[in-house]
Write a structure and sequence with these properties.
alpha+beta, Rossmann fold, 5-stranded antiparallel β-sheet, 20 strands
Length: 357
């Protein structure tokens, strides 16, 4: 595994007495595509700005490749940031925009020309040297902003919701572009977004944040299939989250009915939260299910039907390729492997911290 490139150690940050990051610890490996994911106000942009040198932490250190860079100015760091507002210089051509950082470093004309050509080729905008920014679409401007960051040969590219202003089709194209760029350039990407799908599509590692705390760190598969708490489960995709009781290892009681599961180590007769993804709820004839319910809502989603099923006072969300009309009585079954058990947080504040141990 490649070595730690950035190590954020015990970072805390407040603005106007309001704690935004609370003793945050996180490391980023070389050549990793790491995404900070969470709702607005969770601290992800502040974390990125501390890495880039635009904010100083109140406590803690930023270690880059073994060196303490906590107090280094942004332009002295081997990191380049691409912001959501592309911030291209409107009065300069594309070539001048890209060359800006290189001119400050007193690079030769030939070097700069080569770099401009190379970076435009990388972002699929060859021949755009003499265009002005306002003649470009949003997606093209964003690619120029990325080209401008790449020419400085940073070891790390920090991206703050860079696709936020683009429409869906363009965003998806740009997601593939960014993955390709990362692979071609072999640099580390740290990416901030509140878009779960974007995080799942692009990342090697996802860091889910809420209220200044890290909730869970893992691969996209890991975070989707094995959420550590209700916040993560709910934030990454749609879920049925059911208050339940762990009877004993491998047996859980959900809404008064007993379901077999595969989890162990939660104790006996302990309150837990259970997550069942909508695609893992199996609808059957009423007598064949573990519990019975009635279909109360139905939407056709293209690949599947999305149904609401009222069963024992809880409205289950179900995704299935089989359609059951509204009013149909159905049974609900769930495969033991598809029942995910989580510890219940004991208090509101612990809810934010549970998985930060």
């Amino acid at each position: 595994m490649s070595h730690k490139l950035i190590d954020l150690s015990h970072i805390s940050k407040s603005f106007d007495g309001e704690m935004v990051l609370d003793d945050l610890n996180l490391y980023i490996r070389e050549n990793e595509f790491l995404t900070l994911l969470g709702p607005s106000g969770c601290g992800k942009t502040t974390t990125l700005r501390i890495m880039g040198g635009f904010e100083k932490p109140d406590q803690g250190k930023v270690i880059f490749d073994g060196q303490d860079i906590t107090n280094l100015a942004p332009n002295k760091r081997q990191l380049n940031t691409v912001f959501q507002k592309y911030a291209l210089f409107t009065h300069m051509t594309i070539a001048e925009n890209i060359a800006f950082g290189l001119k400050i470093k007193n690079k030769s004309k030939e070097y700069i020309q080569d770099k401009i050509k190379y970076s435009l080729k990388l972002v699929n905008l060859e021949g755009y040297e003499n265009r002005m920014p306002d003649s470009l679409s949003g997606g093209q401007q964003q690619r120029i902003a990325i080209a401008r960051a790449i020419v400085n040969e940073p070891k790390v590219l920090l991206l703050d919701e860079p696709l936020g202003a683009l429409d869906l089709k363009l965003r998806q194209d740009m997601q593939y572009e960014l993955i390709r760029l990362k692979n071609e350039l072999g640099i580390t990407f740290v990416y901030v977004t509140h878009d779960q799908e974007e995080a799942l599509t692009m990342s090697d590692t996802i860091v889910v944040m809420n209220q200044g705390y890290i909730q869970q760190v893992g691969t996209p598969e890991n975070i989707y299939n094995e959420p550590e708490n209700a916040f993560v489960a709910d934030f990454i995709g749609e879920s049925n989250i059911l208050p339940s009781t762990m009877i004993h290892d491998k047996l859980v009681e959900i809404l008064g009915a007993r379901f077999e599961c595969v989890d162990v180590g939660f104790g006996e007769n302990k309150p837990v939260d259970v997550v069942v993804r909508p695609e893992d709820v199996v609808l059957t004839a009423p007598e064949e299910g573990t519990i019975e319910g009635v279909v109360t809502g139905l939407i056709f989603k293209g690949v599947h039907y999305e149904m609401d099923v009222m069963a024992r006072g809880y409205e289950w969300l179900v995704h299935s390729t089989h359609m059951f009309p509204v009013g149909t009585k159905v049974g609900i079954r769930v495969d033991p492997f598809d029942i995910q058990i989580m510890n219940k947080p004991e208090s509101e504040d612990e809810e934010a911290v549970t998985s930060n141990e």
